[in-house]
Amino acid sequence: MKQKCGTDRRKGVLYLRRILAVLFISISMSLTACGSSEPDSRIQVPSSSLDYRGMNYQDVLTELAEAGFTNVGTEVVDDLIFGWLTEDGEVSDISVDGDTSFSSGAKYEPDVEIIVTYHTFPAEEDEGEPPVEESVAELDEEKPTEAETGQEQETGGGQDTTLSETEQALVEELLNLPDYSGKAYVEVNGNIPYFADSELTTESFESYSSLDSLGRCGYAYACVGQDIMPTEDRGEIGAIKPSGWHTVKYNGIVDGNYLYNRCHLIGFQLSGENANEKNLITGTRYMNVEGMLPFENMIADYVKETNNHVLYRVTPLFTGDNLIADGVLMEAESVEDKGESILFNVFCYNVQPGVAINYLDGSSQLDGTMTAAEDTPSPDISSSASSDEQAVEHSDEQTVASTESAPTVADTAPTNNGSYAVNANNGKIHINGGCSATGNGSNAMKNPVYFDTYEEAEAYSIQIAPGQDKRKCGNCW
């Protein structure tokens, strides 16, 4: 049996009953031969069960009371450790007359039983101590020293508290992750995600944190199912400039030449999100393709094959006021079989072999540890404040194509890496970085031919495989 992170749950149902009395005036009316119908006394629920999930429970109670519901109770799940992945008071579920899946506008009697379930911290032995709160986008200003560990820290509410031993262990594990040593990711918490059992649901959803004051993304959270996967082609994302963004090329050093990708936290293939600024961070090509992509593909393949669900959360971790994340924490658990098929908790390093990155502002330079295959000029850099719309911008799942015209059939295929890759054996077209076929692993193409635009790639594909009926890779599109 897999051990899950969390504490014993204390569940208490507290019923909120509306104090205001509602006066009904009965008026006697004569009945006609056809009879008379009584007015519908039911009232509408303002939001759907999906909309309520993730809201603060007090806001939910207020909304329901204002709508006229008089029998609203709460169920507490005291499973929070330090409250930066899931916030104190965040609603995990809501039921109306036992129904946990209802639509906005559904009608119920005013006194129908409604239970709002929310997360909070376990009761402290010392009742005078408030729970610990942490910033979503920022773990801490600096890694704590031994002398600082366990000392009182200032919370988001301006109060001081002391971490429990369990909280100290988890914070230290995240803040003192091993330095990058050649592997794109490292397991965290024994590869067990920090989900509570109460979070597991078979209802698909997706949720994105608001940007912080520095324009940085917080965590992205979803229950991935086939019903939220994309049904249309990707759109352009080049207009989004994530925090710390630079357009910079290191030809011959970086796969695809461009150092940074606009990395989706929840990959497009899982949620269909395109230019969502709350879901895009500045990530290295290496982290995107070697770190994150294999885990995203694992989830996508499982959901497509089984029609089951995967609870999934990706959290970028920043140090202090840095605009570039140190990396991303990726957690996933298959829901229907409680982690038997998919279960991981990993930290992917936002690094690029051969390049030294200034995480404060995203600037970079060669570190001298790698030699380009050919003479490499000084990097072509445009800061996030500059106009770089004409540059060919690589991301994990979308590229802004250049404006060059498509080649004729007789044109020679380029030898450099480009935005699109064609399998020279079968004519299949891939987005560079869109799937493992364009990576360096065992699934990589043996004879890829690269192009800067889709039109060029398509023309070459038609030339070598005129009978190919599905030219676009199913994983990339």
Describe the structure.
This protein has 477 residues and is an alpha+beta fold. The chain has three domains: 13-17 and 40-119, Trypsin Inhibitor V, Chain A, CATH 3.30.10; 138-144 and 161-383, Extracellular Endonuclease, Chain A (3-Layer(aba) Sandwich), CATH 3.40.570.10; 401-477, no CATH class. It contains six helices and 24 strands. Strands 7, 10, 11, 12, 16, 17 and 18 form a seven-stranded mixed beta sheet that branches. Strands 1-3-6-4 form a four-stranded mixed beta sheet. A hairpin with an 8-residue loop joins strand 17 (327-334) and strand 18. The radius of gyration is 26 Å and the shape is globular. The chain starts with 12 loop residues before the first strand and ends in a 13-residue tail after the last helix.
Topology of this protein?
Blueprint: E1 13-17, E2 43-44, H1 49-52, H2 57-67, E3 71-77, E4 91-96, E5 107-108, E6 114-119, E7 138-140, E8 153-154, E9 160-161, H3 165-175, E10 185-187, E11 205-208, E12 220-224, E13 246-249, E14 260-264, H4 268-271, E15 280-284, H5 285-306, E16 310-319, E17 327-334, E18 343-349, E19 355-357, E20 364-366, E21 380-383, E22 420-423, E23 429-431, E24 448-451, H6 454-464
Parallel strand pairs: 3-6, 7-16
Antiparallel strand pairs: 1-3, 2-5, 4-6, 8-9, 10-18, 11-12, 12-16, 13-21, 14-15, 16-17, 17-18, 19-20, 22-23, 22-24
Q: Can you give keywords for this protein?
A:
13% helix, Extracellular Endonuclease, Chain A, Trypsin Inhibitor V, Chain A, 7-stranded mixed sheet, 477 residues, globular
